[in-house]
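> example.struct
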């Protein structure tokens, strides 16, 4: 009898020990498959994009070499043709990158959706396990012992509970990992969408650039009529004009950018060529800027506003490549367009034009030569006593012309007809 009691006590003690280890949960085992982490794989377009990148590098080097050569009509056309080809390659490369990213986004979108579904399922299952574990925790050890047919049956049940417990631990790890993967893929997905938006903007810029390059070539061929002599004449005139602008700017201390310059009133708007809103912009895609060489462009923009077109600013004129001529095409033509509004600059008497209520754009010779090296807008006055809007002087709105430039010569004067 004592021997049987010892066996029973040992049996009960063993049961409680095992039950204490595995009594954290008892539910049916279930296998779940998680979606793999998204890994971008090369597409057939990747090789094409890489090939275009190599061609772009080669053409950039070629354009640089051509630009360093002596200027001639044929060399200029070669530069333009190479530059247009380079821009076309950049367009094709950008389109290829957009196509690749679009495919990645479609794949990522599907996998994120699948991950979201998997995460929902695994979370729901885990919650069910937690609930079952809580319910199992209320079962007394003796109940499980008494429900066992024999010791072997008891061991089988406790082993099964241990296996389920290990599976639950794995499920908890997988749930955490699934959440991490889901967050990671969402970041990748959003990042690729931003890349596409950036590339689409870049593609629009390249397309506009190509159109401008084509227009510039047509202007060059039209102005020179295919003649080398005409080319050299226009080149010399352009260089002289731009040198005059640079000389004036240097004499005034440089073309540093300014802020908060625009002033609009009943007359129109005052603009400064050095305003940070546009001063750093390239003048019609050349190596020159509005800040250093944009006095005539800025003066024309101010006159536009005097006639009621206050939506026009220097950038509105600068964005239309056909407004420019010269070699390079950095000189404003007499007939231009801005926001679809055409304007024509013609010679006119200063005092009579001002007396009629119309502004006058004048070109002054600051260095005493016969060429205008700065342009500004006269708004009122007579007999040399004029008020002006100076596009270069900081806050040059409605200031005295002679007070600012007491000894300069006026060498050009224009009225603007819209």
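> example.seq
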């Amino acid at each position: 009898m004592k021997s049987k009691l010892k066996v029973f006590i040992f049996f009960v003690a063993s049961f409680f020990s095992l039950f204490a280890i595995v009594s954290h949960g008892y539910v049916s085992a279930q296998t779940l498959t998680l979606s793999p982490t998204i890994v971008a794989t090369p597409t057939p377009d990747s090789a094409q994009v890489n090939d275009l990148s190599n061609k772009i590098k080669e053409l950039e080097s070629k354009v640089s070499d051509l630009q360093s050569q002596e200027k001639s009509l044929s060399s200029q056309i070669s530069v333009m043709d190479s530059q247009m080809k380079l821009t076309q390659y950049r367009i094709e490369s950008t389109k290829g990158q957009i196509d690749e990213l679009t495919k990645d986004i479609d794949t990522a979108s599907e996998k994120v959706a699948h991950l979201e579904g998997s995460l929902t399922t695994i979370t729901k299952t885990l919650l069910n396990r937690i609930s079952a574990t809580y319910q199992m925790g209320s079962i007394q050890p003796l109940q499980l012992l008494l429900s066992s047919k024999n010791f072997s049956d008891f061991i089988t049940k406790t082993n099964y509970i241990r296996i389920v417990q290990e599976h639950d631990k794995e499920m908890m790890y997988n749930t955490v990992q699934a959440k991490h993967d889901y967050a990671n893929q969402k970041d990748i997905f959003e990042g690729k969408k931003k890349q596409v938006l950036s590339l689409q903007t870049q593609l629009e810029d390249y397309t506009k650039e190509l159109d401008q390059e084509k227009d510039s070539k047509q202007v060059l061929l039209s102005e020179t009529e295919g003649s080398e002599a005409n080319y050299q004449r226009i080149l010399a005139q352009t260089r002289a004009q731009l040198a005059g602008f640079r000389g004036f700017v240097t004499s005034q201390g440089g073309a540093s950018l300014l802020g908060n310059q625009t002033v609009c009133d009943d007359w129109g708007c005052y603009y400064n060529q050095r305003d940070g809103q546009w001063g750093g912009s390239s003048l019609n895609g050349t190596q020159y800027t509005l800040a250093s060489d944009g006095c005539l462009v800025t003066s024309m923009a101010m006159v536009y506003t005097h006639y009621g077109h206050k939506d026009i600013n220097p950038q509105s004129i600068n964005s239309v490549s056909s407004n420019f001529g010269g070699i390079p095409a950095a000189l404003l033509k007499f007939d231009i367009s801005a926001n679809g509004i055409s304007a024509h600059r013609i010679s006119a008497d200063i005092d009579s034009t001002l007396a009629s209520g119309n502004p006058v754009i004048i070109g002054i010779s600051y260095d005493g030569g016969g060429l205008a090296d700065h342009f500004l807008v006269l708004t009122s006055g007579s007999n040399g006593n004029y008020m002006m809007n100076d596009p270069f002087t900081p806050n040059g709105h409605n200031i005295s012309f002679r007070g600012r430039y007491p000894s300069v010569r006026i060498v050009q004067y224009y009225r603007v007809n819209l």
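> remarks
The chain is about 60% helix and 10% strand.
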